[in-house]
Specification:
Strand 7, helix 5 and strand 8 form a beta-alpha-beta unit. A seven-stranded parallel beta sheet has the order 1-5-2-6-7-8-9, sandwiched between helices. A two-stranded antiparallel sheet has the order 3-4. The protein has one domain: Rossmann fold. By secondary structure, the chain is an alpha/beta fold.
Length: about 220
């Protein structure tokens, strides 16, 4: 059912830069309840000064290109380039405060999506647990069978999309969602098979970008 919905919605995605929205390092001062907001938390390798670091096995993590791909949704993109050796829990608390700021300014929870890959996916999961808001959207990219799996106190909330790569050692989120299914408003999971292992999410490959952006475009009723 999800694949049918995604297929119908892929045609509305605009990958051409002219349609791209603004990208911010932190939440802008002026917000609108009519806008959609996407918070992207990058992987561990990007922490530091280099926005395009190179892994010896998985190649270049093209952080700017990923943000540009997400901006094609026309949502406001908020993506902090974290400092080296950042505390993931501190960043999750920062995300929580930014989301609460949006909610206080009457941005509907359905217009807010937190996306995270690897270490950023762990941060996204922690933020979901801290916010405990069942109306917010969360996308976890290749992060569930690592830190999140080992911390039973972290309980996911809201509408959850998990995307993982079958050649990667990090797999399904079903076990984590199963810890507290009553707080998860909806759960969808997509396995991609690029053969690129964890590096599948180092580049804005259509294999994961299109399902992600299409899922964000769905109404919350359609996500169920």
């Amino acid at each position: 059912m999800l694949k049918q919905k995604l297929a119908c919605l892929i045609c509305i995605i605009f990958p051409i830069p002219v349609f791209a929205s603004a990208i911010y390092n932190t939440l802008p001062e002026e917000v609108s309840p009519d806008n959609k907001y996407i918070f992207y938390s990058h992987g561990y390798i990007v922490e530091g000064d280099d926005p395009k670091p190179k892994h010896p096995r998985w190649g270049v993590y093209d952080y700017p290109a990923i943000l540009n791909a997400l901006s094609a949704t026309k949502a406001t993109i908020v993506a902090e380039h974290r400092a080296a050796n950042s505390d993931p829990f501190a960043h999750a608390r920062k995300l929580k405060q930014q989301v609460l700021n949006l909610l206080k300014q009457n941005v509907p929870a359905k217009n807010i999506t937190l996306v995270g890959f690897s270490r950023g996916g762990f941060i996204t999961g922690v933020a979901s647990s801290l916010l405990a808001n069942d109306g917010i959207n969360y996308v976890i990219l290749a992060a569930c069978t690592s830190g999140l799996a080992n911390r039973e106190e972290i309980q996911l909330h809201g509408h959850i999309l998990s995307i993982y790569e079958t050649s990667d050692s990090v797999g399904s989120c079903k076990g984590i969602v199963g810890r507290n299914p009553e707080t998860v408003a909806s759960f969808q999971e997509i396995a991609i098979s690029t053969g690129k292992e964890h590096g599948a999410f180092y580049q804005p490959l259509t294999d994961w970008v299109e399902p992600l952006t299409s899922w964000i475009a769905l109404s919350q009723e359609e996500k169920k």
